[in-house]
Amino acid sequence: MDLAALLPNWLRSEDVLALIAGGAALLSFIIIWNALLVKDSLPDRIQGLEKRRKHLRDQAVKDTRQRSQLIGNDNFKLRIVKKLQLMKGEGARRISAHLAQAGWRSKDALATYLFARIFLPIIFGGFGLLYFLGTNPFDWSKAGAVAGAAGAAFFGYALPGIMIKNQISKRYKEIRKALPDGLDLLVICTEAGLNLDSGLNRVCREITNSAPELSDEFALTSIELGFLPDRKEAVLNLSARVDIQAMKTLVNTLLQTEKYGTPLAVALRVLSAEMREERLMKAEEKAARLPAIMTIPMILFILPALFIVLIGPAVLQALDAFSS
């Protein structure tokens, strides 16, 4: 059977068949050319970065406008604090340093703290005076009620400081716990060829979910290393924000590597091993103190129950014998 007879009349021409064969050959050449061609993705990446930068800039402008509107609508606390001239001087800088150690670095946090220090004693003292004079639950005299209200006012004055100390303690505990793992990641980054700035930036991205406190501090240090004129100042700021011995040791190590040119990866590896060993020694110390801590609970709760179980049947039998 002739296969050409199955084709339409317009395809039986030799010219049409030649055109089809040429088109197929050209299409095959283009496909192979595109497969073997090494494309330069740099323009696409630059365009993507420009779009990302524009998106971030628009988002930052939007957040700034929203924040400005919010502050413009409700800045009663800020106006009161500024009128009293409380945001200037050495005391305000010291309070800002404590707030930064607790993780609160904005200017609004300072205004909120100062506002609470002013009005919480008034609120607590007023409610305490109304409670002790109005209900008088303890049958106090007026002098006793005034003293109780003064104690409530003092508690209101001390409450913001107590909250900051508790927050600093919790934050330092989390940072101390996550620091050896963060140093291990920093060692890997530096051994891979990254400098200190890029290594800190990479580590803070990796530990954002597991250790947000340490990630926050490393990210801020990486930013300061990039724009501060003195790199030593940026590293010392990290030690000022996280006032624990482990972070001071890390800062001293970074300063020595910057000053003497020693290998950063080797120094960080040794420091990480020392921190892990110190943490293990603290765990062993707690385990060694456990018998001494458990002595009093055993005497108060376990030994009486044990004596009842062991001596109780004999005492009951003796009471039955004497009663009969």
If you had to describe this structure to a student in words, what would you say it looks like?
The protein is mainly alpha-helical and 324 residues long. Among the domains are: 76-166, no CATH class; 173-281. It contains eleven helices and no strands. The chain has helices at residues 14-36, 42-73, 76-83, 90-101, 107-134, 142-191, 196-206, 212-227, 231-241, 245-260, 264-323. Helix 3 (76-83) packs across helix 5 (107-134) and helix 10 runs antiparallel to helix 11. The relative contact order is 0.04.
Q: Note the overall shape.
A: extended
Judged by helices, strands and strand pairing, the structural class is: mainly alpha
Rg of Cα set: 37 Å
What percent of residues are in strands? Answer: under 5%
H/E series? HHHHHHHHHHH
Distance from first to last alpha carbon? 126 Å
Proportion of helical residues: over 70%
User: How many helices does DSSP assign?
Assistant: 11
Low-pLDDT sequence parts: 70-74
DSSP, total strands: 0
Average pLDDT for all residues:
79
| Main sheet specs | none
List the helices and strands and how they pair.
Layout: H1 14-36, H2 42-73, H3 76-83, H4 90-101, H5 107-134, H6 142-191, H7 196-206, H8 212-227, H9 231-241, H10 245-260, H11 264-323
Helix pairs in contact: 3-5, 5-6, 6-7, 6-11, 7-8, 8-9, 9-10, 10-11
